[in-house]
Design goal:
Order of helices and strands of chain A: EEHEHEHEHEH
Number of helices of chain A: 5
CATH superfamily of chain A: Response regulator
Order of helices and strands of chain B: HHEEEHEHHEHEHE
Distance between the termini of chain B: 35 Å
Number of domains of chain A: 1
Structural class of chain B: alpha/beta
Strand order of the largest sheet of chain B: 5-4-3-6-7
Strand content of chain B: 15-25%
Largest sheet of chain A: 5 strands, parallel
Oligomer: heterodimer
Chain lengths: ~150, ~190
């Protein structure tokens, strides 16, 4: 029997707007964390689901870290079934949550439900541009609620 | 509190297993000899323990970090005194990359003293280590202050990050497990001193 996994929501004991980075490899993650933190965001990092460990969002239990986030930046790609399942679960369970997806244009066209227009980030987006996009997503979301 | 079960269905199956084990023990007690009763008891206990351990949730900690605190280009470090007080060379290295340091000395409470509520001496010792480290940091021309923290080093660092902020954690420890736990927990650089 596969063991159930709980993601500890310790990230969100800290105040401030919260960004959950979903990153498969650590190539850009350090610079992105640094830029987001200096822009005033608390940051949590999820390295994504694997074949063995499915995303808890896709199960009954949900993911406390995703539920507590103000923005999710998904850089898991769209190639793997697990990554698409995680992104689909985010879109379904948390439809109000801004989710920015790092994906090339062809992949976004192939899965438009997962990457709606305006939510796509260019692959390899720089840290300062990422901060701008995150701030814009939060502003857009708060405009919708005002 | 985190539920030890994945779902209500799993909790119900666990309850059924306990009920089945109890019935087996009662039947063995009524109709079999002592040896068989002991074997049934052991088997029932092993089955219940195995079901609990297999179904128990595995906790994966997401590395995370609070927002930067202080002026945008200021770099802060939390210096955790887990066992040692860092030497001058370590502090000089820290000065090269950090503007401010918060020294955190967890209260090192042995279990016996903890149960006897005798934590005052441990707290005083932690304060002494902290003051010693702050003094060394000031000698190394670091802007430094210090606090006595929670007896759990991770909780002590959590508290420090919540109030002081911190762009990196420096742990004065030779405990690889503590270092690994810090690296799993925080999405900022963690190094040793």
């Amino acid at each position: 029997m596969a063991r159930h996994e709980v993601l500890r929501p310790q990230a969100w004991e800290w105040p401030g707007p919260r960004v959950l980075l979903e990153e498969r490899d650590g190539k850009h993650v350090r610079a992105r964390i640094d830029a987001l933190r200096r822009a005033g965001f608390a940051v949590g990092v999820c390295f994504g689901p694997t074949e063995e460990d499915h995303c808890p969002l896709a199960g009954d239990e949900g993911c406390a870290a995703a539920h507590g986030a103000d923005v999710v930046v998904s850089s898991l790609g769209l190639e793997s079934v697990e990554a698409r399942e995680a992104l689909g679960a985010l879109r379904t369970r948390l439809p109000q949550l801004p989710v920015l997806v790092e994906a090339d244009a062809a992949a976004a066209l192939r899965w438009p439900g997962l990457v709606p227009r305006g939510d796509r980030l260019e692959p390899g987006i720089g840290p300062s541009e990422l901060v701008e996009r995150v701030e814009a997503a939060i502003a857009r979301e708060s405009d919708l609620h005002d | 509190m985190t539920s030890p079960f994945r779902s209500e269905a799993q909790a119900f199956r666990f309850l059924l297993l306990i009920a089945g084990g109890t019935v087996a023990v009662v039947v063995a007690h009524a109709f079999a000899g002592t040896t068989i009763l002991v074997v049934v008891c052991v088997l029932a206990a092993v089955a219940v323990a195995a079901a609990y351990l297999v179904g128990r949730p595995r906790v994966r900690t997401l590395p995370a970090a609070p927002a930067h605190v202080g002026p945008r280009d200021e770099r802060r470090a939390v210096l955790l005194l887990a066992e040692n007080v860092p030497g001058r060379a370590s502090l000089a290295g820290l000065r090269e990359r950090c503007d401010r340091v918060l020294v955190v000395a967890p209260v090192d409470t042995p279990a016996l003293r903890h149960w006897a509520s005798d934590v005052d001496r441990a707290r005083e010792q932690a304060r002494g280590r902290m003051e010693d480290a702050v003094s060394r940091a000031l000698d190394a021309r670091l802007e430094a202050s210090g606090v006595v923290g929670d007896e759990d080093p991770l909780a002590a660092v959590d508290d420090a990050l919540r109030t002081f902020g911190g762009d990196e954690v420096v742990a004065a420890t030779s405990d690889p497990q503590l270092l690994a736990a810090l690296r799993r927990r925080y999405a900022i650089p963690v190094s040793t001193a």
